[in-house]
Design goal:
alpha+beta; OB fold (Dihydrolipoamide Acetyltransferase, E2P); Chloramphenicol Acetyltransferase; 3 domains; seven-stranded mixed sheet; four-stranded antiparallel sheet; 24% strand
Length: 454
Amino acid sequence: MARIDVIMPQMGESIAEGTLSKWLKQVGDAIKRDEPIFEISTDKVDAEIPAPSAGVLAEILVQQGETVAVNTVVARLETDAGATSGAPAPTPGGAGGRSSPAPVAPAPSRPAAEPPSRRAAEPPSLPDSTGAHGPETSEDRLIRKSTPLVRKIAAEHGIDIGVVAGSGHAGRVTKNDIIGFIEGGGRAPQRAAVPSAHPTAELPTRRPAEPSSHPLAEPWPGDRVEPWSRIRRLTAEHMIMSRRVSAHVQTLFEIDYTRVSQIRARRKKEFAERGVNLTYLAFIAKAIAENLRKHPGLNAAVTADATIFRREINLGIAVALDWGLIVPVVKQADELSLMGLARAISDLGERARSKKLSPDEVQRGTFTITNPGGFGSYAGLPIINQPQVAILGVGSIEKRAAVVALPDGTDGIAPRLKGMLTMSFDHRVVDGADADRFLLDVKRSLESFPDDVA
């Protein structure tokens, strides 16, 4: 009999740690190769991790809810396969998935028996600041102590990461740490902080929120208390941060979908024969992608005091899950046909619900579309998906009374298929006139959609 280590996989180049959210197997269970064995959550994606080999789950080293560094051994399998110990678990399957890189040196895992309360009470330990190549520079320390996402948030707020105490592995500053630091008024923490290379006075002065302004609700007898999942907690933090960072303004346009409906009715069977469901969302995504090229200010991001105009047009499509919200991304959307967009949207949505997305498929979005109309909403005013500068909300599409021009030149009332498109945009970099011109062009594209759709 041989034992194989099951490790926390690296779900993308910028991902340094993951939370083991749920064990799908228990000690003693027989497991087939590639059968899902546990679920993880990272800053980017929830996923099921398959077993690296067939065997029996002999030992669980990391419990549900624990966050550990990538390459940490989370469990061991007992197998007859004679495989060598330390084989990494592959990343979830599906299009675009990549195998996890083999670990160079597994990060030390915490003893499973160590109580969470004791771990929380101990200050995070930091590695020695000197190495084989001499003293560590401030830049080296910044890179070691944080991920690219954390560094970007810190740069946007003018914060030196050196003054933020990290709760991650080896003192790493996590996304929760930096957001908590910002919401606490941007003050240097009192615990295990690394001295800043810059004077504290250079930090932006922010007045901490009064405790009374954020009262905590108390459960009453008979209430049910359900702790937030990791994805729910991260979504909440991201939305609060977005509302605080961006100057949100909304604009609303009513769209006549009558022409799109006629094309869809004529071509839906043809698309279905090729395994594609032709939805209204595919038409909207096509119109958005084509017009973003004409309006680059909406396909942009903000960094410090500059605007980045993205060359790629990558559409994020928000997907509602039973346990939260996730935004898979259709890459190079402007280069796809209507058929390609419809296929990509359907595929990403299905794999998001089954936790089969790879980290790359939820990153590098440049513009986001959310569809509350699918649940019957007349219109929604969504929050911008940072660091983008705009997000489109799609309202319900239904027959409504409309004024139409009659052949004799008079006006009449007739039923038309209509729906609202709403767009939230960042007024720091997008002016109202530019936002309205963009959405007007989207409206014209949908209401005069070409017949020769592919």
